[in-house]
């Protein structure tokens, strides 16, 4: 059965116009992402621009809705004094924006429903802090890369002064601003070195020293890394919220990093 030309031509025109709109919208969103990325990098004196993602498909729908569902910033291998290289991510959700902000990409001051900052330490980063060059971090109940979040971790590595690997189950806790990593079960260690092994996997950190702009409110292991997260609600978005190196000084009496740092 042949489709009449009077039906085919309008369909072709609609498809062409839709494709053009999609292309223009994608290019416009990319321009906004690049502008935010460059602005954040300049503000935070970063050597490389963070990866910026602006959610909402199509992006231009924000001209009508006045809402951008998500703006996220990702930075890998951020050098944090006293910690070394960490990975950082910031997310601002449900931003209320004006038409000018949508068109310009200048979203500073836009009210956000939630701002979430996450810092992660992989095996290399945490191993550097613990003095283990071969540290492996795993979810003890799900070793898949996308395994669920747990507040327990299985750590395997060779501590300083050891000739063999040690495998330890640890719990991840927050006590106010202080993060505590405490051994709960020794899985494998050289005979006679059990107490030394437990001491090697005991660690404490003042989370004010993390680039979270606040103390950590949650900690968990997922996919081979330990994540620290802080959130704030119903606040205007600032450039600092998208910067991977924002941190806060510790309050007096909160302690400090262990001497090994």
Automatic annotation (TrEMBL):
It holds the Pfam family LmeA. InterPro entries: DUF2993. Residues 245-255 have a biased composition (Polar residues). Residues 240-261 are annotated as: Disordered. This is DUF2993 domain-containing protein. It comes from Corynebacterium occultum.
